[in-house]
Design brief:
Elements (H helix, E strand, L loop, with lengths): L4 E6 L10 E11 L37 E7 L2 E9 L1 E6 L4 E5 L3 E5 L4 E6 L9 E11 L10 E5 L6 E5 L5 E8 L1 E2 L2 E2 L17 E7 L4 E4 L7 E8 L2 E4 L2 E4 L2 E5 L5 E5 L4 E8 L7 E3 L2 E3 L2 H14 L20 E3 L5 E3 L1
Antiparallel strand pairs: 1-20, 2-9, 3-8, 4-7, 4-9, 5-6, 5-8, 6-25, 7-10, 11-12, 12-15, 13-14, 15-22, 16-21, 17-20, 17-22, 18-19, 18-21, 23-24, 25-26
């Protein structure tokens, strides 16, 4: 058996990624019951409110003061792919667009020439805990698309294809095809100006769930494509015969089929794959361009224009308590789930 593993390294926050990706922030928070105002029904003393990343009591407020999350902040020059595996996200942005999504939904946002947005985590359940499991993947834009118009698309969980495999022992593997293709299952279209919009770039974003003892073979991709697995839940598994523990990133040779043989617990992995953009990357906080001069220009423009300003009453804007999943686009189009 040929071994497809190139390297294994421990995950740190944020998760390391390879071109065309910039990084992946993984959030797992066991939020308590809500307080009726979408915040936690808990004493917030002892937390560094405004920058709480310590994970005290199993959860963080992040940059939120009353509701956990990330109040209004700018981006330019890249995309965010936000996978809300569990829990809810309230999105608001400087274009007047908004939404509430979660529990398997994915938001694909192209920052392009510049946008402000907020991402708050409303704790709507007041009788039970409000667990959150969320990935935010930063996907770079090539120079030709750095300054496109901002855009976001919703990939509702009902529309994300699920590939199911049953092995010879009756054990199951489930693959959510967020981007790319597995067998006859092709993902919804990403944002139109994305590096992922061209199938030749072989961008794949998959979440993989293996039942205990399940075996599945990940199909091959082209030479030169970067491919990494992120093993974030479970205990251990064998990858091409090598034992790998939870909490590791596994870089793979995409030209070799990879055999996953799970251990005794359910395991979950994220796979990121794509042809590298291969351009210089200059990054300063929320701005990702090709040169330091372009970063300085982005900072100056944000100071002067606020990328269109902030049309909402609060920087930590949340939607109505009883509102369900929805997306309001900048052109006035509304999706309700």
């Amino acid at each position: 058996m040929s071994n497809s593993i190139l390297s294994v390294q421990a995950l740190t926050f944020p998760w390391q990624t390879s071109d065309p990706f910039l990084f992946c922030a993984f959030h797992k928070d066991n939020y308590p019951k809500g307080n009726g105002q979408m915040g936690p029904n808990a004493n917030l003393s002892g937390r560094n409110l405004g920058s709480d990343f310590a994970g005290k009591d199993g959860w963080s407020m992040y940059h939120g003061q009353n509701v956990p999350g990330f109040p209004a902040h700018p981006h330019r020059g890249f995309e965010t792919v936000t996978i809300a595996e569990k829990g809810l996200v309230d999105h608001s942005d400087s274009l007047g667009a908004a939404g509430r999504f979660g529990n398997g939904d994915v938001q694909w946002m192209t920052a392009g020439k510049g946008v402000q947005h907020s991402e708050m985590f409303p704790l709507l359940n007041e009788t039970e805990e409000n667990p959150l499991v969320l990935f935010q993947i930063w996907l770079n834009l090539p120079k030709a698309n750095k300054m496109v118009e901002p855009h976001f698309a919703m990939l509702w969980h009902e529309d994300i294809p699920v590939f199911n495999h049953i092995d010879s022992q009756g054990n199951t593997t489930k693959v959510n095809v967020i981007n790319g293709k597995i067998g006859n299952y092709t993902s919804p279209s990403p944002a139109p100006d994305s590096w992922a919009a061209n199938p030749e770039n072989e961008v794949a974003i998959l979440t993989i769930v293996l039942s205990p003892n399940a075996e599945w073979q990940l199909p091959t991709a082209s030479a030169g494509v970067n491919r990494s697995l992120y093993f974030y839940a479970g205990e251990d598994m064998e990858i091409d015969g090598s034992t790998v523990k939870r909490g590791n990133m596994i870089k793979l040779d995409p030209t070799k089929a990879t055999t996953l043989l799970n251990g005794k617990e359910e395991s979950k992995l994220l796979m990121l794959q794509g042809k590298p953009i291969g351009e210089p990357v200059a990054q300063y906080g929320p701005f990702v361009m090709n040169s330091n001069a372009e970063i300085q220009q982005a900072m100056n423009e944000y100071q002067n224009t606020q990328f269109g300003g902030w049309p909402w009453a609060k920087h930590d804007h949340t939607h109505e308590q009883g509102r369900g999943r929805f997306a309001l686009h900048a052109d006035g189009r509304e999706e309700i789930k």
